[in-house]
Amino acid sequence: xxxxxxxxxxxxxxxxxxxxxxxxxxxxxxxxxxxxxxxxxxxxxxxxxxxxxxxxxxxxxxxxxxxxxxxxxxxxxxxxxxxxxxxxxxxxxxxxxxxxxxxxxxxxxxxxxxxxxxxxxxxxxxxxxxxxxxxxxxxxxxxxxxxxxxxxxxxxxxxxxxxxxxxxxxxxxxxxxxxxxxxxxxxxxxxxxxxxxxxxxxxxxxxxxxxxxxxxxxxxxxxxxxxxxxxxxxxxxxxxxxxxxxxxxxxxxxxxxxxxxxxxxxxxxxxxxxxxxxxxxxxxxxxxxxxxxxxxxxxxxxxxxxxxxxxxxxxxxxxxxxxxxxxxxxxxxxxxxxxxxxxxxxxxxxxxxxxxxxxxxxxxxxxxx
Length: 369
Prior knowledge:
Layout lengths: L20 H17 L3 E4 L14 E4 L6 E5 L4 E5 L4 H10 L2 E2 L13 H7 L6 H4 L6 E7 L5 E5 L11 H4 L9 E8 L1 E2 L3 E8 L2 H11 L6 E7 L2 E8 L1 H11 L2 E3 L2 H7 L14 E5 L12 E5 L4 E5 L4 H10 L3 E4 L13 H14 L15
Parallel strand pairs: 1-2
Antiparallel strand pairs: 3-4, 4-8, 5-9, 6-7, 6-8, 10-12, 10-13, 11-12, 14-16, 14-17, 15-16
């Protein structure tokens, strides 16, 4: 085993888990057979994000048993972990060192895995202030369509063909290859945390979002829900205290942000028959002329919408505002915004190079990919 893959501190030895090369080789062999026979593969981890995207028909390739933290250096703020590792297990290991995943990824269930975090690319309330999932990816290990197990990014192997392959895998939903391991940058946990709730009309709240964005305030989450502006302050004790006194408002329970991240607020009630949409918009976009109920997240840059509006009409309104809309309700014919002709051309070329026989999660993102 190469030196960089070894745990150098005895305190981290217990974090290493089997399987290793044997499990990876079995996965490689399954990919080689599928590629030779042109058999579609449905890549699966914990299954908690199966609703996100289009259903895939094919032979199941599971990564659930390919798990374990292979390297963790708290001093360097770097961790390497296999794709099948439960997300909760990784977070517990980081928490023991008072560290965290800066992108605050959602779980959507107890079986959430690191691979699912990478495949979906979904981030939580902290994303605008700390970064998205892809911003924390340093490198990956990937099984190619030929069944080769290669490492990209980091200090081992330079990316080829001009692609940053490690980050390309984030949000690709497994359509470009099988990610078996990922190296991530992690962050220290803040010294102090406090939540605020300020009752304000929507227009005033959006003005506050824009104003506060121009000042170095320790805000790491901002949402507008049920007639009130919700804020999370994180940082040094004195900074959080001073900002709390400056902004005013009532105390907010800490569980609010986890409930928002995991879609456990009443707004996300699965009994609501209206489709759930995720709108991604430029900062400071005013309210859109769409029917339905909206929850404003990421200081308004991400909006959750419950609406019966026609998909084409909704996407036209969002597109004219410079954003895009994703339907998170299972069964949607087109969950993702259709690609423009130019973007589709490059996507097709990339897919042809990395998966020429179309075996990796075919149709997961779009029917033709």
